[in-house]
Amino acid sequence: MQLTWHGHSTWSVTVGETDLLIDPFFDNPKTDLEPSDVDTPDYVLLTHGHADHIADAGAFSEATLVATPELVSYCQEEFGYEDAVGGMGMNIGGTVECGDAYVTMHRADHTNGIMTEYDGSAGMPAGFVISDTEPSEVANDEDSTTFYHAGDTGLMTEMIDVIASFLEPDAAALPIGDHFTMGPWQAAIAIDWLDVDHAFPMHYDTFPPIEQDPEEFAEKVSDAGSDADVHVLEGDESFELSS
Question: What PANTHER family does the entry give (predicted)?
Answer without folding.
Answer: UPF0173 METAL-DEPENDENT HYDROLASE MJ1163, UPF0173 METAL-DEPENDENT HYDROLASE MJ1163-RELATED
